[in-house]
Amino acid sequence: MTDPPLREVFGKLLRRVRLRQGRTLAEVASAARVSAQYLSEVERGRKEPSSEVLAAVCAALGIDLPDLLAAAGRDLLAARPVAPVLRLADARIGRPPSIGRPGEVRLLVAA
């Protein structure tokens, strides 16, 4: 499975923040100095916004760009499937494999 394009992740996050604030596309677009049509395309993941546009929209929404980037990273990690991990101790006593957390690395050593 491949990660979705960042433009889609950013768009969903920006739309979620805007809707939570109860603001319209026109309000946020005006504050960010972009067209409402363009912001709509960004929110739907159809346009790849520049870093300057992302920063302007974040400022218009009153959020920090680093917070948007961190949230995008969390969303990408959460969307990844978690592969089952078989622990050696569990295998010896016939337990089913335990599930690790996304990004977790384990080393299995057989003696």
Automatic annotation (TrEMBL):
The UniProt record lists the keyword DNA-binding: yes
Originating organism: Asanoa hainanensis
GO CC aspect terms: cytosol
Domain HTH cro/C1-type stretches: 14-68
Keywords: DNA-binding
GO function term, MF aspect, one: DNA binding
Pfam entry (one): HTH_31
InterPro entries: Cro/C1-type_HTH, Lambda_DNA-bd_dom_sf, TransReg_Diox_bact_type
Domain of life per record: Bacteria
PROSITE patterns registered for this protein in UniProt: HTH_CROC1 (PS50943)
Name used for this protein in its record: Helix-turn-helix domain-containing protein
